[in-house]
Amino acid sequence: MSRHAKSRYTMRNAIVLLFFLGGLVLLAARAVYLQVFSSDFLQSQGNQRHLRLVKDNSHRGMILDRHGSPLAVSTPVDSVWAHPPTLAGERRKWARLAVLLDISPREFAQLVRKHEGREFMYLKRHATPALAERVMALKIPGVALQREYRRYYPLGSVAGHVIGFTNIDDQGQEGVELAYDASLRAVPGTKRLLRDLQGNAVEVAESVVLPKPGRDLVLSIDRRIQYLAYRELKAAVFEHGARAGSAVVLDARSGEVLALVNEPDFNPNNRAGLRSGLFRNRAVTDLFEPGSTIKPFTIATALESGKYSPGSVIDTTPGVLRVGDRTFRDVHNYGVLTVAGVIGKSSNVGMSKIALALNKKSMWEMLRRAGFGQSTGVRLPGEVAGLLNPYSKWVPVDQASIAFGYGISVTPLQLARAYLALANDGTALPLTLQHAETVPEGERIMSAKTARQLQSMLELAVSDTGTGRAAQVADYRVAGKTGTVRKLMPDGYSEDKYVAWFAGFAPIHAPRLVMVITVDEPARGAYYGGEVAAPVFGHVMAGALRLLDVAPDAPRRETRLLTVKSERVTE
Questions:
Q1: Mean pLDDT, rounded, of the chain
Q2: Predicted TM-score of the model (pTM)
């Protein structure tokens, strides 16, 4: 090889070597740049492709009855979710997945397009275990399961109205679930998942924020008494072909709500096809005129005024009384009655005469102290305050009508609260749906003497000669009052639609339970409160007193009211 050729060859090798060394220097520089100056950026990009933040759910607090029996619990379920960008690249597998999820291929495609550009989408909430297993068996990239919780109600329709229910996101919608949602609701956390090349979650890399379960709630409800009230009310509504009904049972010593039921009912575990009207808690949302069940509070005003005593005489002859443009009638002409007899026979004429002799402000104040026209404070959704017009608007016909339960509207729970004061020797207690460890401080609304006189009168009302004899309970002395009112319709009072009431408590010597029953529009057979509502009281009270191991009363004694020397009252 010539010297000239060798020189060109050496130069060419030098150039190649120079380029080679230059390339190595550039690669080294790039490596240093990536490893030193861009490591955080590259790590972030890698994490975005293989790590994902997802919600870490926890369970909602349990709802328990006063004895610790579950009324609402959360059970773990799996929901099917997907990573939209990954799922979009698996279009060939959409059809098989759509079939499993029971949606059309077109709807499935629309669902994926709707979530385009997002990182998360639900495909099926609260899937059954079998469905979740079949979905995961398809091994579709980007499709995974997420643990959630579904609410279950062991008593079903028995406690549907008082407990309520949650929606699919575990948020309270009705009843206690809504009223105490803030404390029952769980606070979800977040966790970081590691994904494989196909986008599937393979393991939990770390918990970022730990989830917090909801707080358990212990109610005052006794599931045994709840079932008794539910069974008897349901039977009465069916037997009489009624439109609806409600029943409330209170602990006379503490003001705790032991049972609260309505008809028609609903099953919170299966709400498919149900009308929203069935969810209405009628015991706190529906207003009715209370009829004769309000009479004890008119009598309380009379006794407190000093003008009357239980033996004072009222002449109800001839069983008809004209007040203004209204005529009030009794079922029969009862003639001359004592004040106690006015309660026992439920005389509207006698009650009107007593009321018209009283100060209307005093009557209003007694009703107001008993809780009428104001919320009970139990926090149940939709509760209404009732209607009690200011006494300044009362004319004589209003004063007479309100005395026997017309012109005033109450809920069953309000009436139960008022009778709680009668049972508690004249002291009104606040109502509660939470189990109370101590007895709350009450407010005296009438003297203990007046309350005990009324207790004796109300015992007379359920005696063999009273209107509420069907409420009697074997071996126990009970007190109560019937009520039957014509329903107020848009065009006036109906001639054939009624509301039947009964309110009472037992046993008299040391009242333990207070109960109110209302049956709306009984349409078959009887419609009087003493024939429709009173038997429900008798059946429930008989079972509940025995469940609570309440000792029977002493042998029944004749009421002294029948032998009290009559006192003529100027009316």
A1: 88
A2: 0.84
